[in-house]
Design goal:
The complex is a heterodimer of chains A (267) and B (283).
Chain A lengths: L7 H6 L6 E10 L2 E11 L4 E5 L6 H7 L10 E9 L2 E2 L7 H7 E4 L11 H10 L6 H14 L3 H4 L12 H14 L4 E5 L7 H14 L4 E5 L3 H7 L2 E6 L2 E7 H6 L4 H7 L5
Parallel strand pairs in A: 3-8, 3-9, 6-7, 7-8
Antiparallel strand pairs in A: 1-2, 1-4, 4-5, 9-10
Helix pairs in contact in A: 4-5, 4-7, 5-7, 7-8
Chain B lengths: L2 H40 L5 H5 L13 H32 L2 H16 L2 H16 L4 H26 L2 H9 L4 H12 L1 H16 L3 H4 L19 H10 L3 H29 L2 H5 L1
Helix pairs in contact in B: 1-12, 3-4, 3-6, 3-9, 3-11, 4-6, 5-6, 6-9, 7-8, 9-12, 11-12
Classes of the chains: A alpha/beta (267), B mainly alpha (283).
Chain lengths: 267, 283
């Protein structure tokens, strides 16, 4: 996997452009402060893994990156997040626009049961007003190829999406997210409900996708974080404990709590 | 644990089972009796003329209830036009838009409306439609049945929308799809069979209403010509014929009751057909 990682030494020294710049992000659900003053920079075209024990705020952090946490009417945030320089919480910015630029894949695969495979891929485009049949067909193939699903489904694009296996469904969801051409792809434990083989396919896919996309992935699986990511952020009790290159976090973390967690002593 | 205890417990167990069985039989018996009587007394009067002809003059055999059958379908059609959009969108509001507080109040209101006696509905629409229009009309009949459908459709729609997993809403919203498109194209579409079921059950429920039609559609003995004129309906015809002193009309009333019951039965069979693979398709 080392070949997949860009030269980390230079990256740490020179300032690099940032896909998502998070500054002093706090998220509250009612009176409960779930995230506390988190600041970190997500590097473009790389995979950033978010790890930490259950309830540490990692899913909330992920959802704050495309304003999905606002679905909870009690949610409130302070701080700032800039997506390639644009403040995504600025007053004039609609969450809908943010979510088109920052796509998301969920833990439980959720292809729409009323739609075929190709309809699922293009649903984001169609519901945003795209009618051009040729463009839709083009985007279907392109997205399914990127999600490494094309060869398995190209002969049955018009069959129900729920006829696919669990792993295929999750890759279909990835294709669906890619079809609207987001700049960043968020993944919330995308492989936790899948078997070994399907998981390794998703991991290969992640390594492939980072050539084009910025990826932020929440995972419970330490091996997965170590295998698939370039950077790792360790969250604990709503705080960002440590953030650095994955090699550093897993081989020489500077915090005792990080070391205890990645070595499996707690969590 | 003594042997006596054990015996007593077994006895209670058996007793409970018998009581439950008896109650189940009590539930089914009326249905069997109703069908038995309707078929015995009504079936002989069902023939081609019954479905195609107007009611005959008193004392003459023959004639039919073609106008009442057509009238019932016209009334139910109007009711659906009013009750389905309002009920479905109201249910969408309850499930997708309302705050817990506002939804709570509206849900409470809908539940009370479901319990309002049908004759009260009839009086309300009499005041709202019949009086201003200076006459009984098919339109007033459609309005009253439609209004009665609204709270029924609303509550079932809300319930089936709640059954749609939150993951589908999130997936659509995460694609940058707006909320109303997510609700209509994803959530409602996923729950469509359940909503259709609720609509059919509501239609079946109002199909047999008589009291509200007495104050609105009134009934008549001619073919329906205009929505602003009174219109015949099966329940009204049953009511009028059953109250009459003529044997021939009594037989026709039994036949009409049988037809009405079969209509409701077919709607329910349609519901079973729709719900057949509802759970399979959900996951």
């Amino acid at each position: 996997m080392t070949s997949a990682i860009i030269n980390r030494e230079t990256m740490e020294q020179t300032p690099i452009t940032t896909a998502l710049a998070v500054r002093n992000l706090s998220v509250f659900f009612g009176a409960n402060e779930v995230l506390k003053k988190v600041s970190l920079d997500i590097v473009p075209r790389a995979v950033t893994a978010i790890i930490g024990p259950s309830g540490c705020g990692k899913s909330t952090f992920l959802r704050a990156l495309n304003r999905m946490h606002e679905l909870n009417p009690e949610a409130r945030m302070t701080g700032e997040i800039r997506l390639f320089g644009d403040d995504i919480y600025a007053r004039a910015v609609e969450p809908v626009i943010v979510r088109r630029r920052v796509g998301m894949v969920f833990q439980k695969s959720n292809p729409f049961p009323t739609m075929t495979i190709s309809e699922n891929v293009t649903v984001g485009l169609r519901l945003n007003g795209v009618r051009d049949k040729r463009l839709l067909a083009e985007r279907t193939e392109q997205s399914l190829r990127m999600a490494a699903l094309w060869d398995e489904v190209k002969d049955r694009l018009n069959t129900a999406a729920i006829s696919l296996s669990g792993g295929q469904q999750q890759r279909l969801c990835i294709a669906r997210a890619l079809a609207v051409q987001p700049e960043v792809l968020l993944m919330d434990e995308p492989a936790s409900a899948l078997d070994q083989l399907a998981t390794s396919k998703i991991e290969d896919l992640i390594l492939d996708l980072k050539k084009k996309y910025t990826i932020v992935i929440v995972t419970h699986n330490m091996q997965q974080a170590a295998r698939a990511s370039d950077f790792t952020a360790f969250f604990y009790l709503g705080e960002l404990v440590e953030f650095g290159t994955t090699t550093k976090i897993f081989t020489s973390p500077s915090q005792k709590r990080t070391e205890d967690y990645v070595t499996g002593r707690f969590g | 644990m003594t042997a006596a205890n054990h015996k007593l417990r077994n006895f209670k167990d058996a007793l409970m089972q018998i009581v439950a069985l008896l109650c189940a039989i009590i539930v089914v018996t009326p249905l069997v009796l109703i069908f038995y009587h309707l078929i015995k007394l009504g079936f002989s009067s069902i023939n081609w003329a019954f479905f195609t002809q107007l009611p005959g003059p008193v004392g003459e055999p023959g004639g039919g209830m073609g106008n009442a059958i057509v009238g019932t379908f016209i009334l139910l059609g109007q009711a659906a036009v009013i009750g389905v959009p309002v009920g479905v969108l109201g249910g969408v509001f309850l499930a997708e838009y309302g705050s817990p507080k506002s939804s709570g109040w509206i849900r409470f209101a809908a539940d009370i409306l479901n319990g309002v006696p049908s004759i009260v509905w009839g009086l309300v629409v009499y005041g709202l439609v019949v009086v201003p229009m200076h006459g009984f009309s098919a339109l007033a009949g459609g309005v009253v049945l439609g209004l009665m459908m609204v709270p029924l459709v609303m509550r079932t729609t809300e319930e089936v929308l709640h059954l749609v997993p939150a993951g589908y809403r999130e997936a659509a919203l995460a694609l940058g799809v707006s909320k109303w498109k997510t609700v209509l194209q994803i959530v409602v579409r996923t729950a469509l069979k359940g909503i259709a079921t609720g609509v059919l059950l509501a239609i079946a429920r109002v199909a047999g209403e008589t009291a509200p039609l007495l104050f609105t559609a009134l009934g008549n003995n001619i073919w329906a010509r205009s929505l602003t004129q009174p219109i015949a309906a099966l329940p009204l015809q049953i009511f009028n014929y059953a109250m009459s002193p003529y044997d021939e009309w009594h037989r026709q009333a039994w036949a009409a009751a049988l037809v009405l019951l079969l209509l409701v039965l077919f709607i329910n069979i349609g519901v079973r057909f729709l719900t057949r693979d509802r759970w399979k398709a959900k996951i």
